[in-house]
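Quick log. Single chain, no ligands specified.
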Amino acid sequence: MTEEATPEVIQEVTDWKDKYFRTLAEMENMRKRMQKDRQEMIRFGIENAISEFLPAIDNLENALRFANEASGEVKNWAVGFEMILSLFKEILHNHGIVSFHSEGNTFDPLSHEAVEVNETTDHPDGMILHEFTKGYKSASRTIRPARVKVAKHPQKEEPSQINAEEKKEEELTQNN
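-> predicted structure:
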């Protein structure tokens, strides 16, 4: 007995083929997604490990700023420390991590940490006046925000607030 290709059989074969190809595509997409997630986790781990070395890099840079004013022996040591610092910077560069300049730019909470606010009308509101610690970023995220001093315009007190404060002061002086 031979089976003829009835429309029902043809439809069933077509359905099975469709399910097979959909499953293959789903498996391929899952493989790509897992590979992307694994690469992201590795990159995130490397960036976190490197971020722990950033304070040491900052300290080397700060020490080397004062080395030029020191004695000859200290200057010789400084040359070696400059080589070590350049190796650290090369490692950062190889992993796509760069420092960024903040002074004179507008404050961005994703890239900056405000450690001091200076009330002034000499500078635009939100302008970074001084950078205490450099910030570092990769292509996808901020590794360490820059620690900065930010300009802020003083708030103007409303007349009703001033009058209320003056009344409180008068009452205090009258009661004493």
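The chain has two domains: 16-93, 97-152.
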